[in-house]
Design a protein that fits this description.
Blueprint: H1 2-30, H2 38-41
């Protein structure tokens, strides 16, 4: 009984992560291929 609940929770969790990854991939593809590290844009 408990195992089923855990399995369901893990499944839901993984689905959410997959959606996040897809979103990140879409956003990343819009960026220039050479993304500068954030430290480059910080003033010295």
């Amino acid at each position: 009984m408990l195992n089923e609940e855990i399995e369901q929770a893990v499944h839901t969790f993984l689905n959410e992560i997959e959606k996040e990854i897809e979103c990140i991939k879409k956003n990343a593809s819009k960026m220039p291929s050479q993304v500068r590290p954030a430290t480059d844009s910080l003033p010295m």
